[in-house]
Each structure stands twice: as C-alpha cells, then as structure tokens.
Design brief:
The complex is a heterodimer.
Chain A lengths: L1 H21 L12 E7 L8 E8 L2 E6 L2 E6 L3 E12 L2 H10 L4 H8 L1 E12 L5 E9 L2 H12 L11 H13 L1
Antiparallel strand pairs in A: 1-2, 1-7, 2-3, 3-4, 5-6, 6-7
Helix pairs in contact in A: 2-3
Chain B lengths: L1 H8 L7 H30 L9 E8 L7 H18 L5 E3 L11 E12 L3 H7 L5 E11 L4 E11 L7 H16 L3
Parallel strand pairs in B: 1-2, 1-3
Antiparallel strand pairs in B: 3-4, 4-5
Helix pairs in contact in B: 3-5
The chains are: A alpha+beta, B alpha/beta.
C-alpha cells in the first residue's frame, strides 16, 4: 500500500508539473500589426508548422507561440518577399478520412477542402553576418500588409510590395463604383 | 526476496532444481539485456562518425534567373540544405552564406546550387487525381574549394508527388543533396 501511495503521489506531482510547464506565460506581443501566422521554417528556436502570432513593431518582427518566441530585428532584415500558394486543409485527420471514404469519395472531398494562403519570407543576417530566412504562412491578402509594415519600420526590400489577386479584386471593384 | 526464497524452497528446505534453473535463466537474460542497453548508450554517445572529412563547408543560396524560382522556395531550399548537411555530420563545421568566421577556416568547401528546372504543382490536383500536380525542382549542386577546384558536382532533384504541401519538395531536394554529398569521397 505505501508503495502504491508513493507511485500515486509521483504521478500527481508529474501531472501538476506538466500542466505548469504547458501554461508557461508567453511574453506579450509587440505593439503593432499582430496577425495569426504559422511558422513554416527558419526560426531556430521554434519548430516547424507551429501556429502563433506575428507582430511587427519598431524593434522588428516578433513571432510568439505556445512553443516559444523569436524575434528578428528590423536592422538585420535584408529582404522581404511575399508569395501565394494553396494547400489542403484538415490536417492528418482529414487525410485519413479521405482515404477511408469508399468509391473515390475522398477525392471529391479534396476538391472542397483546400485554401489559398499568403507566404511571407524574411531574409536576415545574424551577428556574424550569416544569412537566415524565415518563412511564415499568413491568411490570404495579409502578406502584403505585413511587408508594407516592415518596410515602414525600416526593413530593406529589393522588390516593391506585390499586389495579391485579392487586393487587386478589391481595387477593381472600387474603380467600378467610381 | 522473501517471496523468492519461499517460491524456491516451497514447503521443504531443499532447493527445487527446476525452479533454480528458471531463476538462473532469468538472471542471465536480465544481465544480457542490461548489458546491451548500456552498450547501446555508450556507442551512441562516444562513437565517432567515421565519415567526417577534414573540411568545413559553407552553404550558399540557390541562384536562379529572376522570376524563375519563387523566393520562398529558394530560401526553403537553402534552410533545408543547411539543416540536412549539419545533420549528416560529415563536415567539421557548417557555415551559412556570409558567415564571417568562415574566412579564418583553411579547408573550406563552398556548396553552390544553380536552378535547372522548377515546376510548381498543386496539392489539390495531387489529392484529386493522384497522378498529376507534382511539384518538381532540379538544381545543379557543386562543391568547390577556395581555389575553384570542383570536388563534387551533380544534378539533384526533389519532388512531392502525393501528400504534402508544395514546399515539401525543397525538403526532399535538400535530403537528396545531403545524401549524395555524404556518399561522395572528398
């Protein structure tokens, strides 16, 4: 019995510690331009495909997530690029579901389970001059805004802000109204 | 221990030979298993990589004609190559492009890659048709010394055919490059 009690106590302590670590407070995001983003790759302190928030402030670009925070100083940013792509949504659960649907029904599901997204690529150099790149996935139409904010804060960019089809459509609609 | 003694001796005081044999076998098995575990742990921690070469490597980003390769793909290839080459453990040091510390290194190889072809597919097309929509990238990877002596040159490709986002092709490409470099005799 005492042994069982010890094991039980250990298990309780372990679970309490796990919960405490899991709820470690995140540092607050920077002041301006906070948007939801997924870190695809490039930030060494953060794993790939981690969701979090991207904040652009005077001190640079900050990615905050439950897994940790990372910051890129504005002065170290060499270039910023935006892009657009599409992907299947629903993750692994949806993939398994699609495979399980008989008579090729999964393929029909694939036709509807997709979304377009924007990508934001930030090239920067560290203290020893080594080149790094961080790539983020943003909601459609948000990458151009993020790039504009970064340029406004003093980040370098070799290309002008690319207009996304979503923003182009909005512009065209406004012209027609006029 | 008391229970084991009771189980071994039973009601009498004489040792049951078959039970003793079982106990000996159990002890032997435990010893062998524990020994294997310790040996594995030692080999993981102390075993040196026999393929480590007397070179450091500096990795440069992919060069391509303007507009031929989207920036996210170019930089994803670069980041993935850095990761895969570091993971391979073949080189004494791995430097990124522009790293000032590389200037002080004597035996330095520079890995450059030039885009040969790029075909952006579609994940939806792949999921619906299973035969079309693949994303394919091919680059010419070259390892050169500071005095422009080519140590390794190969055209390597990376692709994503069925599952995964388009950017996954860059990971496949980087893995292939690291694998070929690892196999090459430098």
């Amino acid at each position: 019995m005492p042994l069982t009690l010890k094991v039980f106590t250990c298990l309780v302590a372990l679970s309490v510690a796990t919960v405490c670590f899991a709820q470690a407070p995140n540092s607050p995001a920077a002041s301006g331009g906070i948007q939801q983003a997924t870190h695809l790759l490039g930030l060494e302190a953060i794993k790939r495909d981690v969701k979090g928030s991207l904040a652009i402030g005077s001190d640079g670009l900050k990615f905050s997530s439950a897994a940790g925070d990372a910051q890129i100083a504005t002065a170290s940013i060499e270039d910023v690029f935006t892009g657009q792509d599409s992907r299947q949504t629903g993750g692994k659960a949806m993939t398994v579901t699609k495979l399980a649907v008989p008579y090729g029904g999964g393929r029909v599901l694939s036709l509807f389970a997709h979304e377009k997204f924007d990508s934001l690529t930030v090239e920067y150099r560290d203290r020893v001059g080594a080149l790094h790149a961080a790539i983020f996935r943003l909601r459609l139409g948000q990458a151009a805004t993020a790039k504009k904010q970064l340029i406004a804060m003093g980040a370098k960019a070799s290309t002008a802000v690319e207009e996304t089809p979503a923003s182009k459509t909005k512009d065209a609609a406004n012209k027609e109204k006029q | 221990m008391k229970r084991i003694r009771e189980w071994l001796l039973g009601s009498g005081q004489e040792l049951n030979s078959s039970k003793l044999a079982v106990l000996v076998v159990a002890v032997l098995l435990t010893t062998v298993l524990l020994g294997n575990c310790v040996a594995d742990k030692d080999s993981k921690t102390t075993k040196p990589n026999p393929r480590v070469v007397a070179y450091a490597i500096q990795i440069e980003p992919v060069t391509a004609e303007q507009g031929e390769l989207p920036a996210e793909f170019a930089m994803a290839i670069y980041e993935n190559i850095v990761e895969q080459v570091t993971k391979s453990g073949k080189f004494q040091q791995v430097f990124r492009s522009g790293d000032t510390r590389a200037a002080a290194v004597g035996n330095l190889l520079i890995l450059t890659s030039t885009l040969q072809s790029f075909e952006r597919g579609s994940e939806t097309k792949r999921a619906v048709t299973t035969v079309s929509g693949a994303t394919k990238i091919a680059v010419n990877a070259k390892l050169v010394t500071r005095d422009s002596q080519v140590k390794f040159e190969r055209t390597v490709d990376g692709k994503v055919r069925l599952f995964g986002e388009n950017l996954k092709a860059t990971q496949s490409l980087a893995k292939n490059i690291a694998k070929l470099i690892n196999q090459a005799s430098l």
